[in-house]
Design a protein that fits this description.
- The chain is mostly helical and 218 residues long.
- Helix content is 66%, strand content 0%.
- The chain has one domain.
- The protein has 7 helices and no strands.
């Protein structure tokens, strides 16, 4: 039965009691912290990067690359999450947050997946906001290196890091969803996603190293 199909049972998380019960189903997901473990790990990473971005050097005459690259990594984590949600979840609709555990083949399942996609987007919005604030705090500091390569490298490092954490935990360990559900070989797409993520991290590292090489040459 499509419990959200009638006007008396609209798909509304604040007014549909049945839908509220289905949003977290302890039968399918017996441990909520485990289901949210990717968010928890990413939160710890963001907190660590934020701490490093706010640290100051012992000497203000030494240009420190760490604050800019770590702040841009936080921004990259948030932007990477947004792009994942917008492109793969919404535009292409290859998967949704719980689509391997709860295939969105009914209005009810679609609505539950939509709720958790919303939680996912709320998390990425929070991370983007933190990254923006970290960069704003660097505006008036004179002890930081403002290299564009550091900024771009940090974005790629953060984006790739987000993909690795989310991919390993949600795709491979918890199997909440696959990169592409409607395929004969989901693992091919899942491992391909990780390979692309490693390439992005390597590209970010090379950009950051290019800044170092340029600084040494000067």
């Amino acid at each position: 039965m499509l419990m959200c199909s009638s006007s008396q049972a609209i798909c509304c998380t604040t007014c549909n009691a049945q839908l509220q019960q289905k949003i977290y189903d302890s039968t399918s997901f017996p441990n909520l912290p485990v289901m949210l473990s990717a968010f928890i790990v990413l939160t710890i990473i963001v907190a660590l990067l934020s701490y490093l971005s706010n640290r100051k050097t012992a000497s203000p005459d030494i240009l420190n690359p760490v604050p800019l690259v770590t702040a841009s990594m936080v921004l990259g984590i948030g932007i990477g999450g947004f792009l994942d949600g917008i492109v793969l979840h919404q535009i292409l609709q290859w998967h949704e947050m719980l689509s391997n555990k709860m295939p969105p083949t009914t209005v009810e399942a679609k609505s539950v997946n939509m709720f958790w996609d919303g939680i996912f987007h709320f998390f990425t919005l929070t991370v983007v906001t933190i990254g923006t604030l970290l960069l704003w705090k660097l505006l008036h500091r004179r002890d930081i290196d403002r290299s564009g390569n550091l900024f771009a490298g940090g974005l790629f490092l953060g984006w790739g890091l987000f993909n690795i954490v989310e991919g390993v935990i949600d795709h491979h360990l918890l199997k909440l969803h696959n990169v592409k559900e409607t395929t004969a070989d989901p693992d091919l797409w899942n491992y391909g996603f990780l390979i692309i993520s490693v390439v992005m991290i390597f590209a970010g590292y090379l950009l950051a190293r290019k800044r170092n090489s340029t600084a040494e040459a000067k």
